[in-house]
Amino acid sequence: MASSRDIVVHPHPVLRMKARPIERIDAFVHELVDDMRRIVQVHDGIGIAAPQVGESVRIFLTCGRDGEPERVFINPRLEQSGAGELCDEGCLSLPDIRAEILRPPVVRITAMGLDGREFVLESDGFPGRVWQHENDHLDGMLIIDRMRPLDRLANRRALRDLERARG
User: Fold this and answer.
1) Contact residues for 163 (Cβ-Cβ < 8 A; gap 6+)
2) How many domains does the chain have?
3) Entry pTM
4) Catalytic residue positions?
5) pLDDT digits (tens, 9 = 90+) for 102-141
6) Inside any domain, residue 2
7) Contact criterion met (CB below 8 Å) for 10 and 96
């Protein structure tokens, strides 16, 4: 049976919820991850979080790019360090909106994989930025919450259009 899940766009309420932890890796989790893989590929994303497909649970995945394998992160926990660095970001749930977002450059993540085993990764590069962006979704946070005032102003019309389209 084909899933009806697709990208959830701002201002959908699920994007603002704190996602609940995954208690066990079951058929629901595997089906959700399969849908997330399909959706992120269709939309040419680099990562996607469960709330972005309408499920308020603590899962995100990152796509294999630049020598990095695809990874599934269940119940992730982040430790960040270093002075914040600006980098351009976009979001599948905020189409046509981009901004320079300030994030710490060094990230250590502890999560569980689909096999149920815990793993730890560290990054001082692009993967760490993606982990932070996707993890924000699990806490109900979007890049619009991290934008500098000038970027917020530059994206005001696009945000208003998204909000109007939702009614």
Assistant:
1) 10, 11
2) 1
3) 0.94
4) 134
5) 999 999 999 999 999 999 999 998 999 999 999 999 999 9
6) no
7) no
Instruction: Say if 1 falls within a structural domain.
Output: no
Task: Give the span between the Cα atoms of 50 and 13, in whole angstroms.
Answer: 13
How far lies 123's CA from each of 2, 51, 80, 83, 106, in Å?
36, 24, 10, 14, 6
Rg (CA), the chain: 15
Q: Is the distance from CB of 51 to CB of 92 less than 8 angstroms?
A: no
Look up the domain containing 107 and give its range.
13-166
Q: Which two tokens stand for residue 157?
A: 């019309």
Q: What tokens were used for 70?
A: 């695809």
Mapped to the 3 state alphabet, what secondary structure does 97-139 carry? CEEEEEECCEEEEEEECCCCCEEEEEECCHHHHHHHHHHHHHC
Q: Cβ of 120: how many Cβ atoms within 10 Å?
A: 10
User: What stretches of 13-166 adopt beta strand conformation (E)?
Assistant: 47-49, 59-62, 71-81, 85-90, 98-103, 106-112, 118-123
- Evaluate whether residue 4 is within a structural domain: no
Distances (CA, A) of 45 to 23, 41, 102, 150, 160: 27, 6, 20, 25, 23
CA distances from 55 to 89, 129, 135, 162 (A): 23, 22, 14, 20
Q: Hunting for tokens 């300030």 — which residue is that? A: 102
